[in-house]
Amino acid sequence: MKKITIIGAGGKMGIRISRNLKSELYDISYVEISEEGRERLRALDISCSQESESVPESDVVILAIPDVAIESVSPGIVKLMKPHSLLITLDPAAPYAGKLYHRPDIAYFVAHPSHPSIFNWEPTIEAQKDHFGGNLAKQTMVCALMEGEESDYELGVEIARKMYAPISVAHRITVEQMAILEPGLVETLSSTCIYVIRQGLDEVIKQGMPAEAAKDFLLGHLHIQLAVLFDQIPGAVFSDAANKAITYGINEIFKTDWKKVLDINNVKEQILAIT
Q1: What is the residue extent of each domain of the chain?
Q2: Among 86, 145, 194, 270, which is most exposed with the fewest C-beta within 10 angstroms?
Q3: Residues 122 and 130 sit within 8 Å (Cβ to Cβ)
Q4: How far is Cα 136 from Cα 74, in angstroms, rounded to an integer?
């Protein structure tokens, strides 16, 4: 039985991981410094441990803490880890930025959930409403072995599948590729575009548009637009008028060099900004 310590076990992501990993498969210790986080753990009938006692005995340590805290927190944790153990982080930003404390005698693994696809079909309403994932709705994840042996990767995937369950596919990529995906593709680009779309909705409502009519019209069009653009309807294309509107919109809204946010050097700047 592998011994695991979860650092930040009662935090926003930590509590999800703690809930999913709680089983008889592993010997798990939970470390949480905030009283609010400890209260969340008590609600799951979980008691907390001291990192100085649990980390040195652990085969795997999971850092479920914010990116901005990894540079200051990870040295104290990593120095306690036993040789040949495995450190798992939940996000590529801090590791890729060099903010994660390094030791040559331990392995490093990164795993991040994709979240349930908008095109998922789920058998129950409850599962369909699991928008975040890690509860009822199936999702994929991306995984990277930053340093270590193939056996370390296999152990990392085994644990990550349970952390983010139910997992349908575990995509193996590099830490750099993971950083391009997040923050580059899904936060700096996608979240920004969607945020602006929401601002557009608010703007037409301020102009006097009935709010529910505007929201229904927008969300319905988003559904079909995404289905067409992401090849969910074989052979479907936008109308000539819609394509002309897209060309107009790109010229009016976007800078000509917007794709630079996906260039790795620009991604590095984004990561330094958020870590």
Answers
A1: 3-173, 180-274
A2: 194
A3: yes
A4: 32
User: In this structure, what DSSP letter does residue 172 have?
Assistant: E
Helices (H), the chain: 14-21, 35-43, 51-54, 67-78, 93-96, 125-128, 150-163, 175-179, 192-206, 211-229, 240-253, 264-274
pLDDT tens digits for range 241-257: 999 999 999 999 999 99
Report the alpha-carbon distance of residue 231 to residue 209 in Å, rounded. 32
SS3 of residue 258 by DSSP: helix
Nearest alpha carbon to residue 90 among 66, 73, 116:
66
CB 120 within 8 A of CB 137: yes
CA nearest neighbour of 142 among 109, 106, 114, 119 = 114
Q: Quick: pLDDT tens for 60-109.
A: 999 999 999 999 999 999 999 999 999 999 999 999 999 999 999 999 99
Give dist(CA 98, CA 272) in Å, integer.
Answer: 10
Q: How far apart are CA 36 and CA 11, in angstroms?
A: 8
**pLDDT beyond 90 at 135:** yes
18-58: pLDDT as tens digits: 999 998 899 999 999 999 999 999 999 999 999 999 999 99
Strand partners, 60: 4, 86
Q: Which residues pair with 172 in a beta bridge?
A: 143
CB < 8 Å & 24+ apart, contacts of 256-265? 261/184, 261/188, 261/189, 262/180, 262/184, 262/185, 262/189, 264/176, 264/179, 264/180
According to CATH, what is the number of the domain 3-173?
Answer: 3.40.50.720
* Residue 98 amino acid letter: G
Pick from 118, 63, 131, 52: nearest CA to 92: 63
